Amino acid sequence: RKPLSLPRLAQMHAQGEKISMLTAYDATFAAMADAAGVDCLLVGDSLGMVCQGLPSTVGVTLDTMRYHTESVARGLHRVQGTAWLIADLPFGSYQESREQALRSATVLMQAGAHMVKLEGGGWTTETVRFLVERGIPVCAHLGLTPQTVHALGGYRVQGRDDAAASVLRQHALDLQGAGAAMLVLEMVPAALAASLTQELTGCATIGIGAGRSTAGQVLVLHDMLGINLGKMPKFVRNFTADGGGIAQALQAYVRAVKDGSFPDDRLHAW
Ligand code: KIV
Ligand code: NA
């Protein structure tokens, strides 16, 4: 398959082909996910919990994100991978100023990322515009934004009432206007994610706990492989549950996202 690119992703979006995304934190899993046909790999700051044992993503540093992004990029390079590589800008690495965001994004792009992701709406619009104008593709992230968990008061569904939904919608439109090519929607009502997906023709929505109508889906790799000590988030499906191996689970995930059988309605009751 040809390497994924921004134009190719835009084409998939326009043609209604679902975009599959998983997190990846190391070289070997990155290569395996790529071989299974996963479109986009996200070096998520969820690695703070998954790899580092932190209580939240707040403690993840830019240097740690650089390390894991380099590892994933090397894994892809070794197998001549084709996945689109996105890396999270961690907490505190982009909030200070647009210039700080550019410096931090540069670190991740030089580590091998093709795109950076940052959380939040409103104040982030000008930051996104600043990065995009300077040649850095950006993925935005609205709804449950884990870096601000302490301000949100917990890991809970966002955009439930009309006022919150209309703020979220305006943030999404502004981020699209600033040039964000993708938008992760985390734990928002399925109906809100569906209507935003309809409205945002220039920005592909990627859902996690946001129903089945988004342009793509993302899960934390370890969650979908059943590698999880605590209770699994409700929106996760364990793709190893039928007894297959890891490669089969990754392939099954791609298939289920592409044919729309993941997620099903049971997995998103909000
Ligand atoms: O860090 C992460 O894994 C993420 C995804 C869940 C979207 O941001
Ligand atoms: Na993240």
Automatic annotation (TrEMBL):
Its EC number is 2.1.2.11. Pfam families: Pantoate_transf. The active site is at E186. GO terms for molecular function: 3-methyl-2-oxobutanoate hydroxymethyltransferase activity. It is an enzyme of class 2 (transferase). It is found in: Cytoplasm. Its cofactor is Mg(2+). 3-methyl-2-oxobutanoate binds at D45, S46, D88, K117. SUPFAM superfamilies: Phosphoenolpyruvate/pyruvate domain. Pathway: Cofactor biosynthesis; (R)-pantothenate biosynthesis; (R)-pantoate from 3-methyl-2-oxobutanoate: step 1/2. Mg(2+) binds at D45, D88, E119. Binds 1 Mg(2+) ion per subunit. It catalyses: (6R)-5,10-methylene-5,6,7,8-tetrahydrofolate + 3-methyl-2-oxobutanoate + H2O = 2-dehydropantoate + (6S)-5,6,7,8-tetrahydrofolate. The keyword Transport does not apply. Keywords: Cytoplasm, Magnesium, Metal-binding, Pantothenate biosynthesis, Transferase. Catalyzes the reversible reaction in which hydroxymethyl group from 5,10-methylenetetrahydrofolate is transferred onto alpha-ketoisovalerate to form ketopantoate. NCBIfam families: panB, PRK00311.1. Belongs to the PanB family. HAMAP family: PanB. Homodecamer; pentamer of dimers. PANTHER family: 3-METHYL-2-OXOBUTANOATE HYDROXYMETHYLTRANSFERASE. This is 3-methyl-2-oxobutanoate hydroxymethyltransferase. It comes from Variovorax rhizosphaerae.
